[in-house]
Amino acid sequence: MSRVRWSFLGLDLRALLFLCLVIPSGIVGIYLHGQKITYFLRPLWESPPKPFITLTHYYHENVSMETLCKLHGWGIRDFPRRVYDAILFSNEVDMLKIRWKEMYPYISQFVLLEANSTFTALPKPLNFAFNRDKFKFVEPRLTYGTIGGRFRRGENPFIEEAYQRLALDQLLRIAGIEDDDLLVMSDVDEIPSRHTIDLLRWCDDIPAVLHLQLKNYLYSFEFLYDLRSWRASIHRYQRGKTRYAHYRQTDYLLADSGWHCSFCFRYISDFIFKMKAYSHTDRVRFSHYLSPKRIQELICKGADLYDMIPEEYTFRDIIGKMGPIPHSHSAVHLPSFLLENAGEYKYLLPGNCIRESG
Question: Pfam families recorded for this chain (predicted)?
Fold first, then answer.
């Protein structure tokens, strides 16, 4: 009987140990790493999107435009289309200047809208208005507008984002856009190359909507993440049909069309602002994510600010992209204005990861 009694006692102790240690540890583990587990298992519950039809992109500075259009299977126009570049602006002053200097020769009208609130209903200053003197070179071709935020705390940030993008449609009409003008739809940090814009404004019979494949960088042009940024797009405008959006709108993708430099800020304070302000604010799961020291360390490593598993659809791609992004020493084929002013923008070039506090 004593053996049986000790057997049950041992069973009770093991059960008690399980209840007191293993289960709480499991709960804490899920709380800390549940998002990672979900993203890692994504291939089990979500299929990859339909692949794009990628169009080969031909370019060389010594090849005529007529030849380039012909290589793409397009004709050439007697005169180029007008091109409108339309963006929502938050606080990316340096990236905006690099963008507009790159695109300036071929843009007919620059259209910029900014709000006094973030997508997450935080108040913000009108940063473009405050820095407008830095953009005198576009002033004759600039249509600038502001919009009041709705400041609805707790609302899905994508609703506010959609509201502001809808307002940009109205500003485009004020700017005088007409049918068959080209409209560039992209975020400030998604920069089409100058020659891509020139090609599409001169060539005839281009697709009505075309996504642009951009080289995908993180923090600076030192960390090339992949070649799969696709949300930037260019449209042959149709009144009553074309709507400003930042999601997939066609199956066609023009290869190697520019650069996407995400979280490419000069100041640590701008990193913190964006982490709290943009639509994916739910990724800031813990307050220490906003620590300036932590952010600086991750920038120099090329590691993820949110400690997330890569957002991919196959285990091969997820595992292949885990960990920091490898450092690159190449500064070839970057926006010309950036290289011409390397001293001012050295934080965007390889080997210069330290940021100012702001």
Answer: Glyco_transf_17
